[in-house]
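User:
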Amino acid sequence: MSNFQCHYVYAANLDGKVKTPWLASYGDVPFHIQYPDGSMVDMLREAAEKYPDYIAYDFMGRSVSYRRFIEDVDRLARAYAALGVKENDRVTICMPNTPQGVTSFYALNRLGAIANMIHPLSSEGEILFYLQDSQSVAVLTLDQFYPKFAAIAKKAPLPKLVVASVGDVLPPLKKVGYKLTLGRKMPTVPQNAEGVMLWRDFLAAGDAYTGPYRVQRKADDPAVILYSGGTSGATKGILLTNMNFNALSRQTVVMDTHFRPGDKILSVMPIFHGFGLGISIHTFLTNGGRCILVPRFNAQTYAGMIKKQRPNYIAGVPTLYEALLRSEEMNGADLSCLKGVFSGGDSLSIELKKKFDAFLASHNASVQVREGYGTTECVTASCLTPYHTAREGSIGVPYPDTYYKIVKPGSTEEVPYGEEGEICLTGPSLMREYVNQPQETADTLKKHADGAIWLHTGDLGVMDAEGFIYFRQRIKRMIVSSGYSIYPSHLENIIDAHPKVQMSCVIGVPDPLKMQKVKAFVMLKPGFDPSPEIKAELMDYCRGNIAKYSLPYDIEFREELPKTLVGKVAYRILEEEDAAKRAAQSAVPPEETREDLVGQPAI
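Assistant: Predicted structure:
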């Protein structure tokens, strides 16, 4: 039990009002649990007090204890206060999984500020949108991404910019090696650039700061902004509270009865993703777990880390498990260390689950993949396969204090068991709102007759009579690549803005590793004929305006795009034509080289 005040959340009041058939499959897991009435950093501090000598995280040969970690959090909180950050200010963290990014996440919470988490591989235009939409007063990024911010500064005023380096947090010998190798390839950050502060100067200013930096926050206070397309396709900031993250932490550990303090997780899912930040970081760090921070991912190095580090838990998107199946590095690996393997961020096919379960068994693991489901509007997971039972094709049962129902799309009318409808859910991890989007918020968070506010996910699914949930498909047109939601309409708007483009249509194409990859069909304006030069020009244009993980792998020119009877571009026809074309090809094209299957930038 927590040392600080606990309380039951509002969801408990739905007992008797909402059907809960899944309780019979809960085993020893309680459906109602208690949650702290404090902040995320309060929960972290409690863990540090209980387990001061346990390792909080490992990073490239450096291990940091909980005692040292909480000291670093306070040190960074002073540094951000010295920078002028105050309670309720928003600060953008544009980082991969590094100590600076993780520690800053909690330091900002210590100050009562809000961490705006964004993808470092975002385009300049996207980064500018995130900064302006969040009204950030400061930004933390790595030196390798500095040129993006320098380019943005030529177009619009930038918040205060703190630039870190991986070398800043490495052990002495590795720091020297880094400077002689990868460090030499990093962009040079001007020493006296206006509004720019290097990490060492940032820390020095904090060490000299003597003013206040601790702000007591409550459970329902806003704490984090994560980005998603939401349920309508346009990029939106999702405002999440301390309760949302702390509830997720408590729920996840309760659902996994095998977890013990000191257990290790390979933290490969990025901190700008709800799955990575909520499960692989916050859940473990607030329960005495040990995070092995992975700033860069490819199948070979990840497999090597599993063999070397012997983690107790791995969590990732289906493409990660597909990659491990193909990795020669896993030959002979002993996976008896694993206590949990979790899949989320995208639908895990039945066949892939069977293959990976067999792979685990053949490598001495006693566990199988547990599939979950969630949305960024609930941080991440809100439904998980029980530890002791499963149903083929099911994404599991709701988390404690979390209620699911299936409704007729476009309504709040619940459908019978076994009938397809829109997945709706409510519970303590439910977001506060979409930032600056009141209408989108109202369209997504709706009050039902039972008196609770329910999230309408925009996903189709089924609930069986035992309460197991089955995901079917997304109501809205959407592409999911390596666990990331990509919205065709957003990409089409960007491509259509090119002066030589008349119209475009973007579809998702099946991919053995990413599940889907992006393909664009383009109709040029009159006077322009398709050519390799124009294709190269459009690809360069896309690289400058679209995030790396959303980039089209190919552009196909069409004289006309197919239309529906009402004049809309018939994207389904393009999907069918492309599928038929690929099926007819006698030769399988070579696989692409992938450095990054889960959105982590290469370092």
